[in-house]
Amino acid sequence: MEAIDLTLEFGSARSQASTRLQTFSSAERASSDRGHTEEIKALRTKQLHEIAELNESFQRKLIGKSLKDHIGDLKNEIRDSEASRLGQVSELQKRYNVDIGDMVAKNKTEVSVLKAEVEKLRSKLEVAERDKAENSARAENDCHELEIRLSERSNLEF
Question: Is this entry keyworded Coiled coil (predicted)?
């Protein structure tokens, strides 16, 4: 919108300057007979300088407006890009936090199952050790009884 306003402003100023130049050209032709040619040339030169200054001013304003618009567009792109990246990071954090939470829960469950299995195996080991001790004691008793019987038989035979 500002660029349109600048264009209209410049067009109006240029039109006015052009009208003045035409007026000076007409006046220059008319006054050449009267000896005012130098004054007219000086005024014409002044008008040409004013037009050149208007043109430069318009170009600076237009370039400045264009740069401001471009900078604004870049800022918006950067802001949108940052928001998009933050959204992606947030989504990844949520996903990984959920994944990590699930993994921790799964590991805790597995640990509980393994602890239960270890307890079962310990119980079986204790039972096996008791059975072994009992069997060992029985075997010793049986051996001892057999030795006694054997010695009794040997004593009987002699």
Answer: yes
**pTM above threshold 0.90:** no
CA separation, residue 149 to residues 71, 84, 134, 154, 155 (Å): 112, 94, 22, 8, 10
Chain-centroid distance, C-alpha 93? 12
Number of domains in the chain: 1
pLDDT, tens digit (0-9, with 9 covering 90-100), for 55-88: 888 888 878 788 888 888 889 888 888 888 888 8
Contact partners, residue 18, CB within 8 Å, separation at least 6: 51
Residue 63 has which token pair?
């370039």
CA pair distance 1, 95, nearest whole angstrom: 46
| 36-50, 109-123, 142-156: the lowest-pLDDT one | 36-50
8 Å CB contact between 24 and 44: yes
Identify the domain containing residue 112 by its residue range.
2-157
pLDDT in tens, 122-146: 999 999 999 999 988 898 898 899 8
Question: How far apart are the C-alpha atoms of 39 and 52, rounded to whole Å?
Answer: 20
- Distance CA(142)–CA(140), nearest Å, equals 5
